[in-house]
Amino acid sequence: MNVIRCTDAEEVATRSAEAIATAVAAARATSGVAHLALCGGSTPRRCYQLLGPLLDSWEDVHLWYGDERCVPPDDPEANVRMVREALVAPGAVEHRMRGELGPERGAAEYLLELGDTVMDLTLNGMGPDGHTASLFPHHPLLDETALVAGISDSPKPPPQRVTLTLPALNASHRLMLIVAGDEKAEALAQVLAGPDRGVPASLLDGDKLDVVADAAALG
Questions:
Q1: Where on the phi/psi map is residue 110: left (φ > 0), alpha (ψ -120 to 50), or beta?
Q2: What are the structural domain ranges in the chain?
Q3: What pLDDT band is residue 219 in, cutting at 50, 70 and 90?
Q4: CB of 160 within 8 A of CB of 152?
């Protein structure tokens, strides 16, 4: 994997935004369209704020989601609300997960919408426990073969969520893991060491993965 070392969380957000803009522009130049999967979190929020102005146009950019809580889209906990507040992307096509439908129906409908779409870039955050999207340590969903799944027993509230699975994440042409803060240093060390079911982010395909992390997270 490629590790991009940054001094602090602001540089993580800045360099991630620049890399995403470059990837989107390259995808549109090659195929006329770009598919980008987004994640939630405080560091990604800042990244999105910086990302919006980096593209002259967001036409033909499709915005997908790596996971969503089973709440209405205007709920303060909803990833889609955070993205809408942080990312100014006029003309982009949004494909939100309808978490308010519940985990099973929400997953089924997103699977239909996803179809055979392959992401040009999937953006991933990571919790201090090493989870990414809504894939948690040692959870049965780590073995799920469907591209989208519902979860009703998330160890992190709220318990009901919809998430892309590892096959969907790893099908992406490129992956990016954004990490900041010393509370994530132990999990990031395992990501860099190799696959471990106790740290789901370590199960991302390292051959496609850019890790953008600050000095605190890198220990």
A1: alpha
A2: 2-214
A3: confident
A4: yes
